[in-house]
Amino acid sequence: MRLMLLAVTLTVLVPGLVSAQSAKQKAAIEQEIRRLDLAHADAVLRGDLAALDKLWTKDFKVNNPFNEIDKADRIRTGAVTYSSFIREPESVLVHGDTVIVMGRETVVPKGNSPDAGKTINRRYTNIWMKRNGKWRLVARHASVICQK
Predict the structure, then answer these.
(1) What is the pTM of this model?
(2) Which of 56, 111, 119, 142 has most Cβ atoms within 10 angstroms of its Cβ?
């Protein structure tokens, strides 16, 4: 009887403990990715290619607001620079070693960048993956929000 009671107790309690631990792990991952996502926006604002190379995978791709798919070539060449870059992550979905971040960005391009001096509102999706023990940005999509 005791053995049966122990088996029933473990059957009920263990899944709850595992689930709680998983929720804690997800919360920690979400916090780390939010920090990295904002660090990425800051590095783009500063044009810090060394910092970006630490965040991007070698095969990083972006579907940019100019309707192009590239390797962030516009950032690398300095064709797009910003005087302001505000990112607001709104949703973080943790799926094991892949994390999807969705939110909004408000940017002000500068210099010879397209739309220099204008405030542009965008929606974005960033996809982060854990590679060799480190979180890296693998892919990104950004779209300009149409003015009404």
Answers:
(1) 0.84
(2) 56
